[in-house]
Design brief:
The complex is a heterodimer of chains A (302) and B (278). Chain A has a single domain, classed as MetI-like fold (Orthogonal Bundle). Chain A is globular and about 70 Å long. In chain A, a hairpin with a 6-residue loop joins β1 and β2 (52-54). With 302 residues, chain A is mainly alpha-helical. Chain A has helices at 9-40, 58-65, 67-100, 105-117, 120-130, 137-144, 156-185, 188-196, 201-212, 214-229, 233-239, 257-266, 271-300; strands at residues 43-45, 52-54. Chain A contains 13 helices and 2 strands. In chain A, strands 1-2 form a two-stranded antiparallel ribbon. Chain A starts with 8 loop residues before the first helix and ends with a helix. In chain A, α5 packs parallel to α11. Chain B has 278 residues and is mainly alpha-helical. Chain B has one domain: Orthogonal Bundle (MetI-like fold). Chain B is built from 14 helices and no strands. In chain B, α3 (59-66) packs across α14 (242-277) and α4 (69-100) runs antiparallel to α11 (193-209). Chain B is globular, with a radius of gyration of 24 Å. Chain B starts with a helix and ends with a helix. The chains are: A mainly alpha (302), B mainly alpha (278). At the A-B interface, α1, α3, α4, α5 and α6 of A face α1, α4, α5, α6 and α10 of B.
Chain lengths: 302, 278
């Protein structure tokens, strides 16, 4: 048992033959680009000419005084907070409800998961049409009930809540599925024991299921937060204005940081500035992830 | 006791009632899309709204098929298949290496591969675009394939299955004089085929749904994938042609829904495994 690296020569050759092409791929397409984004954020980097002039941390200084960066970060965090909170609570509750049914579990699972696999841009268009303020179907039904519907995506106040509504509809199934698999993985003896001890349904959820589901909840929250902070496609689908061919409106109400980075880089051709904002968002994503991981560790101990 | 039974029944009824209500909300936009794709554009937005198409027509589908959606469909299909096969293979290979061999630096290597799974697109997209521009492969389908040849998620998923493959199988094959690549292809791969299938479906759905990167790199119309073709079509008009866009949405969603219905078990398993084990 002493020799830890017990590979024969043939095996060593195999391992490296397998590894090297994959390693080259991630070096080229993941690691090198990350380094270049950090490096490029220190330059005035023109996308059209490819010219790079070193300007130190000026891009970051500009970013911190750019009102739209602030606005986009606010929008992104607003969206992430409410979307993740609502998705998690709703999906957990529905997972408990589905778990409590004896029949039709497969049916519910199949239906609730359906939006997750649907093409995102297509479903975003569908939502957009459904929520069209003047003649859209939803406002049409609301009108029949005597309610005058809001402007949804065309109203600066309602636009972001509407985006949140869409992302809940779209991602709910994934979060739900992970919760359901987790709840069904809880050993039945634990739950039975609590029933014998006279725990009510609520107590069972509060003191048995919720603590046991802690790691899975953290997993769900982390993946959803990371996804939400980078949101892009849904925003384009929901808000891109055909006339001006810009997304993120009205009045920048749905301009998220991911979208702003994209626009800075590929509409305004400011690669360096866009890289600097990307570095800032990347730092925020990392901080969120680390904090949540820490949280998972602390709670997981007892 | 009777009271308890009654309240239980009421509870069950309420439970199903809310779950079915949830199902209706979930499915409604998709059903609306399907029905409205058979309505003339003027009827998609009508006051008061109509649910079933009163004058069903195929004109929306005729419009989009006249507008090259067939080509986009074929592009999406073949690119998604390549973007499934290559990473499934590399995931199996790397999963095998990381599960069954001990070598110096293995843990660090594994961490590096897994970390690529969590890299946000925002920190890679600009240099990647720049790189592909310099080597002249923008607006080529290879630009969509190259960044996805290795999947950190896939390596992680297949590796956890590799632990179940008994090492004695490999040992006896070695004694019989079987080469390492032969062992991998002939003995190990068939044993992890279910995991590869689950991963393959997930990667296919991801590739099919991919938007941002193809939106950025593809500029000529005959190269568009379905998602890009659909959105460029929708953005082209000042007044959106609701009918054709909805027909295009149906064309982009229907194949994945069919795949989903046929392979539901595998998809659900693959996704739950990734989450619960992760």
């Amino acid at each position: 048992m002493k020799k830890k690296w017990s590979l024969t020569r043939k095996q060593t050759i195999f391992v490296w033959c397998a590894m090297i092409p994959c390693l080259i791929a991630i070096l080229l397409f993941s690691i090198f680009p990350i380094i270049q984004t950090f490096y490029g954020s220190l330059f005035n980097w023109n996308a059209l000419t490819g010219q790079m002039t070193f300007i130190g941390i000026d891009n970051f200084k500009n970013a911190f005084s750019d009102q739209l960066v602030g606005k986009s970060l606010f929008n992104t965090i607003y969206l992430t907070f409410f979307a993740v909170l609502l998705k998690t609570i709703l999906a957990f509750a529905v997972a408990l409800m589905v778990n409590a049914t004896k029949r039709a579990q497969g049916f519910y699972r199949a239906i609730y998961f359906l939006p997750t696999i649907c093409t995102m841009i297509a479903t975003a268009f569908v939502f957009r049409f459904l929520l069209q303020p003047e003649a859209g179907t939803i406002n049409g039904y609301l009108q029949m009930l005597g309610i005058s519907g809001p402007g949804w995506l065309e109203d600066p106040v309602w636009a972001m809540p509407t985006v949140i509504l869409y992302t809940i509809w779209k991602d709910f199934g994934y979060v739900f599925l992970i919760f359901l698999a987790g709840i069904q993985g809880i050993s039945p003896e634990v739950v039975e024991a609590s029933v014998i001890d006279g725990a009510t349904g609520f107590q069972r959820v509060r003191y048995i299921i919720v603590p046991l589901m802690h790691p899975i909840t953290i997993y769900n929250v982390v993946t959803q937060v990371i996804g939400s902070l980078q949101i892009f496609t849904s925003i384009i689908g929901l808000t891109n204005n055909a006339a001006t061919s810009t997304a993120g409106g009205p009045m920048y109400a749905t301009t998220t940081t991911g979208l702003y980075i994209y626009q800075m880089a590929f509409t305004n051709y400011k690669f360096g500035y866009a890289s600097a904002i990307a570095v800032i968002l990347f730092a925020i994503i990392m901080i969120f992830t680390c904090v949540q991981m820490k949280f998972a560790d602390r709670k997981g101990e007892f | 006791m009777k009271n308890y039974k009654v309240s239980r029944k009421v509870g069950h009824f309420l439970n199903h009632f809310f779950l079915i209500l949830g199902c209706i909300i979930t499915v409604y936009p998709l059903v609306w899309m399907l029905f409205s794709s058979f309505k003339p554009t003027s009827m998609v937005m009508s006051v008061p709204p109509e649910f079933f198409p009163s004058q069903p027509t195929l004109e929306n589908y005729q419009t989009i098929f006249a507008d090259n959606i067939g080509i986009y469909f074929w592009n999406s299909t073949y690119i998604s298949i390549i973007r499934t096969i290559i990473p499934v293979y590399t995931s199996a290979l790397m999963g095998y290496v990381f599960a069954k061999f001990n070598f110096r630096g293995k843990n660090i290597m594994f961490m590096i591969f897994i970390a690529t799974m969590m890299v946000p697109w925002i920190v890679t997209i600009i240099p990647l675009y720049n790189m592909f521009n310099v080597i002249g492969i923008l607006d080529k389908h290879i630009a969509l394939i190259l960044p996805t040849v290795v999947s950190g998620y896939g390596i992680y998923l297949v590796r956890s299955f590799m632990f179940q493959v008994p090492s004695s199988l490999m040992e006896s094959a070695r004694i019989d004089g079987c080469g390492e690549f032969m062992i991998f292809h002939k003995i190990v791969l068939p044993l992890v085929a279910p995991a590869m299938a689950a991963l393959g479906i997930i990667l296919f759905l991801q590739a099919w749904d991919d938007y941002l990167w193809p939106f950025l790199v593809l500029t000529s119309e005959e190269k568009y994938t379905l998602t890009i073709g659909l959105s460029k079509y929708a953005f082209k008009q000042y007044t959106v042609a609701y009918g054709p866009v909805l027909a295009g949405a149906v064309v982009s969603i229907l194949p994945v829904v069919i795949v989903y219905i046929v392979l539901q078990k595998h998809i659900v398993e693959g996704i739950s495994l990734g989450g619960v084990k992760g």
